[in-house]
Fold:
Amino acid sequence: MSIYQDILKKKKENKLIIAALLDPDSEDIELLKERISILERGSIDYIFVGGSTTWKNDFTEFVSEVKKYSSLPIVIFPGSANQISKDADALLFLSLVSGQNPQFLIGEHIKAAPALKGMKIEVIPTGYLLIDGGNTTTVEFISGTRPIPQDKVEIAKSIAYASELLGMKLIYLDCGSGAKMPVSNALIKSVKDYINVPLIVGGGIRDIEKIKEKHLAGADIIVIGSVLEDDPEFLLRD
Ligand code: 1GP
Structure:
């Protein structure tokens, strides 16, 4: 079964999907084996790998290391065309639809296309909306786009549905890594009711109650990153 079929199946069964984000720039490659063995014991469905920058670790080497230690599906959540690897199971072909920067709407995609053509990796077109989480995140700086204020619900809904009409198979509402506050339940619900494709929500989600709340509001996939860096055993205590 493809990753996308698996997501659709779980969505239909109303089963919460949790993705743990490993950002190569925040991880110590030496400690990866231990980090992944803890993730494997928690209730994680997928490992997402990616980030706004790749200054610290070589991306392809990092994904190979993750694959070496993990039996969970690996999904690339790329910050640029440089974040591609044949060792991953799928790649979210993210278009930053909340902004008007052509580089992240189509530019990085053109650069990545020839490499993806020769790979067996499952490519899932995804509309990515950056939402204001109360602080300036790395993705805002790097992408040069402004996040959508949480009360501009109609804007978020229109962008999400326009993305679906353009053929995107997933919609991702993200406040960015380390956001002060996550996407509100009200915004999640409004967008969810307006689209048909599965909804991913991430950024600033740091406790089990919030995970449950966001799922109840309509998130099919919850992405958690920073909390697992600060407290690797977070999901083991559920
Ligand atoms: C960032 O949604 C992810 O793009 C995860 O965010 O690191 O805040 O959990 P956190």
Observations:
- The longest helix spans residues 102-117.
